[in-house]
Here is the input.
Amino acid sequence: MLTIALPTFMVSKTRERLIEVAKQLFAYKGVENTTMNDIAAASEKGRRTIYTYFKNKREIYNAVVEQQSNQIIDRLKKIVYSTEMSSVDKLRNYLFELFDIIHQSSPRHDGYRRLLMRDHKRLSKIYRIAFDKERELFGELLRQGVETGEFDLAQASRLPSLVSWIIGSAYYPPVEDPDCDPDMSDRYIQNLTDFVVTGVTATHSNNQSKQ
Here is the structure.
């Protein structure tokens, strides 16, 4: 039997198509209620094609989770490895981006609520994997800032645990605080970001130590 090898770009495109279709079906029907036949029909690919790329539905599920978590990390990587921003600007933009991601994953977000009951486990896994990788990126951003002299070393060493606490408050902002409405107001995010950036900058720290 003659076997014809498909070009790499075609293989990649087919795999991405299957992952995208599976993602939509998981969101609409739930993982447990989605079958390989469903994915085959929705993607207009035969079952044989699907099994060429994935052994079972669990592998497709894991591919969906990996793809979505990587998309989150890619947004942050663009900031950390930008050559056009100072470390201070990177930190500010990084936090704004991080808050936006958190907002989208919050149970208060409309998109999340629609999926919460149907696919909560997948969403939780996606953000858990993404934020494990995010911690490494944040550490790299702080390292860059210390190296350029923009961040105070002592303050930067304290920042990761502090930001984790702040992100927790951003995920469930107190409703009684006028600056912390359920939609994570721009003023709330701005105040938190200014607090972090001001606290870690070397200039601010040096001025404080001289007083």
User: Anything to note?
Assistant: The chain has a mean pLDDT of 77.
